[in-house]
Amino acid sequence: MEHTEQGNIISNTGILDLTGKKPEDLEGISLIENVGLIFAPESLSGALMKIPQRNVGMTVSLPTTSGKIKVLTGQLTLSGDVFANQAGSPEDILVLAGQAIITSSIEKIGFSEVIVAGQLIAPKSQEGMIASAITRLAGQIAYYNSAAPRLFMGDHTFSKDFFDLIDGKMAMVIVGSYEIAADVDVETIKQKISEIVLVGELTVPKALVPVCQFLATTQLGSIQARDEQAAV
User: Fold this and answer.
1) Which branch of life, at top level (predicted)?
2) 179, 167, 184: which is closest to 204 by C-alpha?
3) Are residue 90 and residue 52 in the same domain, yes or no?
4) What is the domain count for the chain?
């Protein structure tokens, strides 16, 4: 938080968590800027609206609860057991912010509310359970069909040597900015990939665009052809 003669400025932060704050705690704030996501209880709505804001991506209003608010942020890989809230209270609220990948079945919902702000990636078999669990969604949900997909998060390139190491077919969940190298051909993709779930960008040789688009069962982002002439 920066301090100026006009008051305090909150700026340049990915997430601003105002849970546990009271309206009087915001009185000295003169500006909120360059913030990706704001979490604020409903009781702060009036006070928050009075503060000038600039370049704020999203504000998530959290309901009042007698339980606890559990906030998980960032790029998350989670078991379905996280929804059970085994050590908590039924009045608790779960907030998932960012990109969360659920890797196993959800057997029980132990929260009064589940709020998703961002992107949630989960097994297609759990679609009904997830739809009933989520009370607020500010973002997107993507489903994968495979029982055991490979998860890729970051910024990397897949080469022909990589695909040659795969026995059978692989389902790929890609989160981030990835490339497929120029030495990979259409037959390799057809033989080695059963499904692509894309959250981000996938850059491929022009010849691979159609087959990758076909295999992309969920696409929250873009599949684009690489400019091979520029790469030379």
Assistant:
1) Bacteria
2) 179
3) no
4) 3
